[in-house]
Specification:
- There is one protein chain.
- By secondary structure, the protein is α+β, with helices and mostly antiparallel strands.
- The protein has one domain (about 5-190).
- It has helices at about 5-20, 20-40, 90-105, 115-145, 155-200, and strands spanning about 45-55, 60-70, 80-90.
- Strands 1-2-3 form a three-stranded antiparallel sheet.
- A hairpin with a 4-residue loop joins β1 and β2 (about 60-70).
- α2 crosses α3, α3 packs antiparallel against α4 and α3 runs parallel beside α5.
- It starts with a helix and ends with a helix.
- The relative contact order is 0.13.
């Protein structure tokens, strides 16, 4: 079997397995999402109360459900607004599926896969924050703007969320994977050049 066909087959298998295991992936990722969301919330008058994977009775699908509180001032004892945020599991699992498939199966990539994996992990963690976590925090940003007197808020997170929903998420995933490949290639070339200089003629 030609290499291109093998890579295509592996990609299809990864897509099927990832889709089938979307709920399990989301459950594993909840502690990271919650931790990242709480770190960002500390920069604002927000509180992340809970984050869980559950079934949405409205859409009959599995979702990430975040419950949070928005304060007028950080020192306020009680919230001025309670928000609920939902992100579809299909969107959640898209990020690891696209990123890792492109990164590990890119046909033009050279060098060991372990190097791509080592560089890819921190890039992937940042990608998860800039996609899923930001979308989970969007209602908090909107609630803060409305409490500040903006009746029709268009916050930075709102603009970012619209970009993601208009195809930007896929672009981010592919670009992040390609940048990781470029960094891994550059690192490999630098290591080879350093080794050549060290060994000498």
């Amino acid at each position: 079997m030609r290499r291109e066909w093998r890579l295509g087959l592996v990609a299809v298998v990864a897509l099927v397995v990832g889709t089938a295991g979307a709920r399990y992936y989301a459950q594993l990722a909840v502690p990271y999402y919650a931790g990242a969301a709480r770190l960002i919330a500390r920069l604002h008058p927000w509180r992340v109360v809970s984050l869980e994977v559950t079934n949405d009775p409205k859409s009959h699908s599995t979702i990430l459900l975040l419950k949070g509180e928005v304060l007028r001032n950080p020192a306020d004892p009680s919230p001025a607004a309670v928000v609920v945020s939902r992100v579809q599991i299909g969107e959640v699992v898209e990020t690891p599926l696209i990123f890792w498939t492109v990164l590990l199966l890119w046909p033009a990539a050279s060098g060991p896969r372990w190097l791509r994996l080592a560089i890819g992990i921190p890039v992937f963690l940042g990608l998860e924050v800039s996609t899923t976590v930001c979308q989970l925090l969007l209602p908090m940003s909107e609630a803060s703007a409305m409490l500040a007197g903006d009746s029709d808020p268009l916050t930075l997170l709102d603009r970012w969320s619209r970009f993601l929903e208009a195809g930007g998420r896929f672009v981010m995933e592919v670009v992040a994977a390609l940048l990781t490949l470029a960094v891994a290639h550059s690192f490999r070339l630098s290591s080879s050049a350093h080794l050549s200089v060290t060994m000498g003629p």
